[in-house]
Amino acid sequence: MPRSHRAELNAMTDLRPRLLAEALGTALLLAVVIGSGIMAERLAGGNAAVALLANTAATVGGLYVLIEVFGPLSGGHFNPVVSAVMAVRGELPGAVLVGYIGAQLAGAVLGAWLAHAMFDLPILQWSTKVRGGAGQWIAEAVATAGLLLVILRAPSARAAPMVASYIGAAYWFTASTSFANPAAAVGRMLSNSFAGIAPSSVPAFVISQCVGAALGLMLHRLLEPRPTRRNR
To answer: Which of 71, 138, 158, 160 could bond 76 through an S-S bridge, CB–CB 3.0 to 4.6 Å?
Structure first.
């Protein structure tokens, strides 16, 4: 076998566990978000604040564990805009980015279906929960910008708890309850439950998230110390 072909084969072999980690991690994240929302709504007795609090707690704990488990394999992105920013920074090749996004989207769909299966709900559904308006779009941009800023600036040893904590806070300080993730938006539009979002609301959310990701990267770069010229 030619050396170039062997190198390509080795690259694909090394990529498989990373793609599996992204798909599985995203699936479990969506199962946590949607499943805990279903359970919370059933037990909260109509109290939306209690339901959101329970949903938040489960998401924070689940996200922390998933980043710790899958981070060493794939980086623990579970989010297309995070992967895209890493590609812009040169930390993820373009060809790998396509695979990451495909794995994340597939995982999000499977995670929604898994949550429905666990709660004996119809597997295939569409959300009817409309989420929109300038306030929620701004909230998604802010939530995503903050998420990227935390990811890019957190010390590596503290990234998992800091990211999970930020998402927990953003559930409450943003009007949109902080999706901050196009894959999550796709998965949640397939669930007519507490965590759902109507398909018609998804495009504006995704655009806002992309804007927020770009803003987060820009802020990170502005915070980086600039090299000073040495006097000759």
So the answer is: 71
